[in-house]
Amino acid sequence: MSSVKSIASIIVFIVWYAISCSAFGQSQLAEEVVFIPKKLFLGSVSLETTLFKPAGDGPFPLVIINHGKANGLTQFQARYRPLSPVRYFLERNYVVLVPMRQGFSKSSGHYMGGGCSMEANGLNQAEDIPPVIAFAHQLPYVDKTRTLIVGQSHGGWTTLAYGASKPDPSVKGLINFAGGLRREGCGDWQSDLYKTAETFGQETTLPSLWLYGDNDSYFSRQLSDHMFANYHRGNPNAKLINYGSFGSDSHMLFTNTDGKVIWRPYVNQFLESLGLPNKVVN
Predict the structure, then answer these.
(1) Minimal CA–CA distance to 249: which of 153, 150, 118?
(2) Is the Cβ–Cβ distance between 67 and 154 less than 8 Å?
(3) Residue 190 forms beta bridges with which residues?
(4) What is the mean pLDDT of residues 200-225?
(5) Helix, strand, or coil here: 126?
(6) Which is more confident, 150 or 8?
(7) CB 3.0–4.6 Å: which of 127, 144, 250, 261 could bond 246 by disulfide?
(8) Quick count: other Cβ atoms within 10 Å of Cβ 187?
């Protein structure tokens, strides 16, 4: 009986794996890994970047998706492949670039943490976005006038920091999914987070959409509300969506397949307000 169950389990796994490969296969997503050079004061580093292209010649608008930060050494963090949001943008004919920042995964160089300064950390991470945009603008199928910057968790913080660091003129807006940074070993890190959020707001006029849940394991509702209020004081062109609870941890909304049902209407509306494509292309 146990051997029959084992065989059945193997069959179920094979079927599941085949379906997964069919639904998320690399060929269907036209996925390519490239290494983008980033110049430093002395020398350069290469940023491991996943490129997803829709079918056709374009020119297509560009979206850059910024990853979060897992526990442990950054060089052991896996390449980020947020397939659910990637599919969302591909269906609307966007070119999607997902860069691994300096020191993460197979990107060379070292992680630039910025010590206990929330501002320094964000601005250091944001420095990896301009070379990715420059690379994309060399591609013949990319629209050089329409760019969207998106990020989740630490990538959301990176996205907000980029908005405050003289963004490329092609950037139309920012989307922040549960963005922020925790530094428990740095004293009153929450106050620094609030203060820096206000600074970032004061230093950009770009529209931004913020999405946070009630059961976020990293950032409580009180923390995210306070952070947004400070940012909004500096830049009223920002909108916060508190969508309630999601699963066991709303911090995972962005990458969870079931989460798209919640965030898709808000992102659709935001894209429409920016004059960017928001409808599925058949």
Answers:
(1) 153
(2) yes
(3) none
(4) 97
(5) helix
(6) 150
(7) 250
(8) 10
- What amino acid occupies position 96? V
pLDDT given for residue 187 in this prediction: 87
Give the whole-angstrom CA distance, residue 262 versus residue 166: 31
Q: Which of 27, 30, 270 is nearest to 141 (CA)?
A: 30
User: Do residues 90 and 78 touch, judged by C-beta distance below 8 A?
Assistant: no
At 43, is the pLDDT very low, low, confident or very high (cuts 50, 70, 90)?
confident
Find where tokens 């420095």 sit. 127
Q: Look at 6-15, 75-84, 165-174, 183-192 and tell me which has the smallest mean pLDDT.
A: 6-15
Query: And the tokens for 9?
Result: 């389990």
Residue 17: what pLDDT?
A: 33
d(CA 195, CA 50): 33
Tokens linked to 260: 């798209």
What are the chain's domains?
29-274 (3.40.50.1820)
Structure tokens at 73: 């050494």
